[in-house]
Task: structure prediction
Amino acid sequence: MQREELADFLRRRREAMRPAEVGIADGPRRRTTGLRREEVAALAGMSVDYVVRLEQGRSSQPSVQLLGALARALRLSEDERDHLFHLAGRQPPPADGAARLARAGLIRMLDLLGDTPALVLSDLGEILAQNRASVLLTGDHTGFSGDRRYIAFRWFTDPAARAVCPPEEQEHHARQLVADLRAAAGRRPGDSMVAGLVDRLGAASADFRRIWAEHEVAVRRADRKTFLHPKVGPVRMDCETLVTPDQRQQLLVLTPADAEARERLELLRVIGVEEFPTGATGPTAR
Result:
């Protein structure tokens, strides 16, 4: 671990960030160059004290998870992220692991979309990053671990995951999840990560086995979904998906399908974050 180099790199990246890049107003009374330490801490989900110790070269060795959170908070490019890992004495994520860190450009797009709900997903259906509007609409889905990281796994193994999707849309949504996973498996032949996920899903869910056996394939680009929000009720949204050139990550943008949905989104921004049932995922998976 190169403490002094790590401290210098983190401090310079923080000072180079413009508050507007992460949705923070840059008012006339702001004297700090770049972001404040407490703002980085909030974005990365860690204590201000630890950020201070990192920048002063006094910290313990950061974990891989913490480094990933810092990379997202500071909007690091892939090269900068790898450099961060090297300075901390950690190996950068391999190709599959790197795909689990949202690309810096996509995170910036989340910030720019502002009040439009948007999220970044891996090609296997793990939500890598969300903007605030997305969290207000669907809840926060970035903290799962193990197989529960994957929307399809939660959908087919946890009844609570389907609670915020209207019953009449659940079969359609289940088929979409399976068809998209089938397309990812076709793009990644021999990939043990994909094969393992499919095997575990098949062992856990007869419903998944039924749909998987039909061999439907579809990469979703556009769709319409209804989100059952516990406070404002059903919100119909049009879903547009943009895919990175390597097809490993997707940017999902949600726009209101009608005037009623637009009004309910505006109400959500006033209400703030609402508690969701444990494990609930809603139809956020494309």
Observations:
- The chain has two domains: 3-92, 104-271.
- The first strand starts at residue 118 and ends at 122.
- Residues 14 and 74 are 7 Å apart (CA to CA).
